[in-house]
Amino acid sequence: MSGTANLFTEEFTHSLHIFIARRIANPQDAEDVLQEVFFRTYRHIDTLKEAGKAQAWAFQIARNTINDYYRARKTAEPLEGISDRATVEYEENGNKEIAGCLPAMVGHLSEKDRLALLLTEYQGLTQKEAAEMLGLSLSGTKSRVQRAKRKLKKLITGCCSLELDRRGNIVDYKQKEKTNPFCDLS
C-alpha cells in the first residue's frame, strides 16, 4: 500500500472529477459519484495487487460506479429527456407523434443496448467515452449502438409505414394495425 498512499493527489482527483463530470450531466450527481468512488477505493484498497496500477484501478472503479448510477436510475430521467429533445427536433417536420413513441420504444430495448444508445445519442458521449464507461471495446460499443438503432427502426416500422425524404427525415407516416403497446399515436 505504500505506492497507493498518494493515490488521490490533487491532480489525479481533478482528472477523476472531470472523467465523471463528462459522463454525468448533473453536477451534484457527479460529485456524489466521485465521493462514492473515493469510498469504494479506500474500502477495497487491500484488493489492489499492483501499486503501480492504482490510478487505472481507481478509474475502473469510477466506470463501475457510473454504471451503477445509471442502473439505479433505471433510465427514468434519460427517457424523459428523449421525449423533450425529440419533440423539439422533430416538431418542425411534423413528427411530434412519432417522436412521442420513442421513450416507450427505447424502454423496450435490452438494458445493454438501451444504455449504449442513451449514453451516445442522448447524453452526448462519444462512442469511445461510452466504451470506457461501459468497460467494453470500442468495436463492442459501436455494435451495441448500431444494434439498438436497428431494433428501434424495426419497432418504429412495425408500428408505422413511413415516408422519408432524401435525407432520411420522416415526411409522412401511416399507423399500421396496433401490434405493440407503444404504437398508440392517437
Describe this protein's structure.
It is a single chain. This protein has helices at residues 10-21, 27-43, 54-73, 76-90, 96-108, 111-122, 127-134, 138-159, and strands spanning 160-164, 170-175. It has 186 residues and is mainly alpha-helical. Strands 1-2 form a two-stranded antiparallel sheet. The termini are far apart. 27% of the residues are buried. The model is unreliable at 75-92 (pLDDT under 50).
Cα-atom radius of gyration: 20 Å
Strand content: 5-15%
Shape verdict: elongated
Low-confidence stretches: 75-92
Mean pLDDT: 76
Q: What fraction, in percent, of the residue positions are helical?
A: 55-70%
Tell me briefly what this model is.
This protein is 64% helix and 6% strand. The chain contains eight helices and two strands.
Features:
2 strands, 186 residues, mainly alpha, two-stranded antiparallel sheet, single chain
What order do the helices and strands come in, and which of them pair?
Blueprint: H1 10-21, H2 27-43, H3 54-73, H4 76-90, H5 96-108, H6 111-122, H7 127-134, H8 138-159, E1 160-164, E2 170-175
Antiparallel strand pairs: 1-2
